[in-house]
Design goal:
0% helix, mainly beta, 4-stranded antiparallel β-sheet, 69 residues, two-stranded antiparallel ribbon, globular
């Protein structure tokens, strides 16, 4: 499971266990959403500038919140 080019700073697992979200620090402070069973990235959020410090799925797994530093 490689999709980041810097240190991973946080992880979140969806409530149903199907998705994993990972965030990183650095110039490409992306959030990657993974299909956990397939071990493949399915979506990339590229809006953070320095570091992702928190990831959390909503109770129904329809939303993902990300907070940056």
């Amino acid at each position: 499971m490689t999709a980041h080019d810097d240190q991973i700073t946080c992880l979140a697992i969806s409530n149903n266990g199907a998705l994993l979200a990972s965030g990183q620090r650095g110039e490409n402070s992306d959030v990657v959403v993974w299909d956990y069973n397939a071990k493949k990235p399915i979506f990339r959020l590229s809006e953070h500038d320095h570091e992702v410090v928190l990831l959390k799925f909503s109770h129904d797994d329809k939303l993902l919140i990300s907070c940056g530093n």
